[in-house]
Amino acid sequence: MAGTKLSGLMSGMDTDSIVQQLVEVRKSRVDTVKKKQLSLNYKQDAWKSLNTKLKNLQSKYVSNMRFSTSYAKKTTKVSNSAAVSVITGENAVNGVQSLEVKQLAKTGYLTGAQLGDGEQNYTALTKLEDLGVTFDGNGEGSFAVTAGKTTVDIKVTKDSTISDVLTKIKEAGLNASFDAKTQRFFISSKESGVSNDFSITATDANGANALSKMGLQVSLAQDKATKTQYEKLAAYLDGTSSDDDIMANMSTLITDEINNRVAAYQKKYTSLMDTKTEAEKKITEINEKYAESPLKSVDEYKTLVEEKEKAIADLEAEIKKDEYATPEDKKAAQESLKDLQKELETLKTEQTDANTLVSKQEAIEKAQADMDAFAGADQYVTIEASEVDGKTVYTATATQKLQDEVADTFVAKAKYAAAALADSSSETATGATKVSGQDAEIILNGASFKNNTNVFEINGLTFTALSETKEGETVTITTQDDTDGIYDMIKNFIKEYNSIINEMDKLYNTEDPKLDPLTSDEKDAMSDREVEEWETKLKDSALRKDSTINSISSTIREVMSSGIEVNGKTMYLNSFGIDYLSYFNAADNEKHAFHIDGDPDDGDTSGNADKLKSMISSDPSTVISFFTKLSQNLYDKMSSLSKSVDGYRSYGNFYDDKKMTSDYNDYNTKISEMEEKLNDYEDSWYSKFSKMETAMAKMQSNANAISGLLGG
């Protein structure tokens, strides 16, 4: 309070008690408004909960059931679910089919032989020479990895590591790893099926030696994909051993490979040149920016930034201690802090640009080195630049070096393939094992279907082969209308509808508790349990006799009770065995709920004949037509009830949420104004009593003075 509170020492009056009694009348007016606001809050909460349920009914059930496709439910039964599983699509055709699973799809998988004798501990960083690999001639070996339609030639030397080999195998599109615990390579295709299988073929004896020492050489009798690859390559010898003849036979392969290599080099060169040009452009931009004041070195900026950050931290600590003599000193310190922060920001910008200069220069040097590595007369391609539509285009041409290397590689592949096929030892396992990629095959109604996975989508059904059937065994596949699915959808809709209509009846018809919301003082005078019970009664009755509830309930009940014309005949819910209980049999606040005859979960009607399920089985089109139209009517009405109304209602809400929020905020304003006036009223009384006490004190003082002059 603004006024000075005196205790009534002079007057002997309990001024606090008197003032509070005077204020109490006006305070009760504030409490009355607060109670009205709290009642509105209870109403808002009750409506939010009911609104959510109404929206859920509309979106989850009513909206979907407007469309006939929601009733197009079919189910498929399988006589042997261990052999195959089936998912039924919308377009599945009713009928009985027979199916056999001839074989399952397999993924190509190579398990390498254990390296060494078990005493070593090889890791991904182990070099091939440490595995005992030796190379004759030029000191390198080569082998090719073919995955699907992609072939990657891999060259290795004694210094190549296990990690290097894994990286190159992965580049071919395979999964590859080395398990240090078991000391084995594991290589597999990324997808199952014959077309996704892989092969690892040695190009020369050195490559074969490397594969053997790495435990990756599988017997050709076991590895179908590798043997097939060798046979394709060996066929190019065509009875000759002349390199020129072999090259002539393989000319198409050689030309294609050269063209592919040239295209790859051209693309890489263009990318490198773009990188170089972009970096040069950025360097020029930064240099022009700092033409008048060149940038310092990266190291200098690092030191300057650290010093500036320390100065800022020290000054911030000083300001936080607040030990300045005057406010002016503190203000000056804060201004200095701002200046330091601006200087730091400038330094960091310059530091970023200095770092960019260094990184862009490094990018230029690396790009140039990469371009020099394969471009030029003595390298793999020569590059020519030309202008096309104002843009520089780079064209690559294969050098003789590239042509000879590709040709020699293919000749070596063909020769080694022929030698490998002629070598009987290649049919002998060396510890590595290979599971060849395999397609799945099923026989459906006598027709064979193959796929690289175990999943087949055929005529609206999705079959997943799980295990091979025994010789002569057939699996029966039966597809039919899912009457249970349609029944359950309608039943769940009725159940959700009943839940909401019963709740609205209960909320509307609840007894008046004849209670007002509690103020803070009133709560303090009661136990927690008493407060909880009091508030529960108020919340339960928040929507009692609510006109909006009555309107919504009446509207949707009217829709549910209306007739629907189906094939020239007017039908109602009771035409399908769905109806109300008699007034006297229905429980309070459940008199508008529907019950389905024959529903095993409904104690009131479970003993009746199940008319709904019977009609779904015998005349599904009538059932579907009725409920789609009913749902459309209900959807339209609910959409109308929840449309936006300016100043009153937001779109999608069934109650006046905007108006309630506005009213609630108005209460806040009114309560604030009333409390301010109440405080002023209280202060005015304290001020009056204070003046009275002061006057009485002065009178007492004067009386004492006179008494003293008169001698007591």
Structure summary, number of beta strands: 21
* Count, helices: 16
Strand arrangement within the widest β-sheet reads 1-17-3-13-14
The stretches of 5 or more residues where confidence is low (pLDDT under 50) are none
* C-alpha end-to-end distance: 41 Å
From the alpha carbons, calculate the radius of gyration and give it in angstroms.
45 Å
Shape: flat
**Beta-strand content estimate:** 15-25%
Note down, in words, how this protein is organized.
With 712 residues, the protein is α+β, with helices and mostly antiparallel strands. A five-stranded antiparallel beta sheet has the order 1-17-3-13-14, with no helix packed on it. It starts with 14 loop residues before the first helix and ends with a helix.
List the defining traits of the structure above.
flat; 712 residues; alpha+beta
The gist of it:
With 712 residues, the protein is α+β, with helices and mostly antiparallel strands.
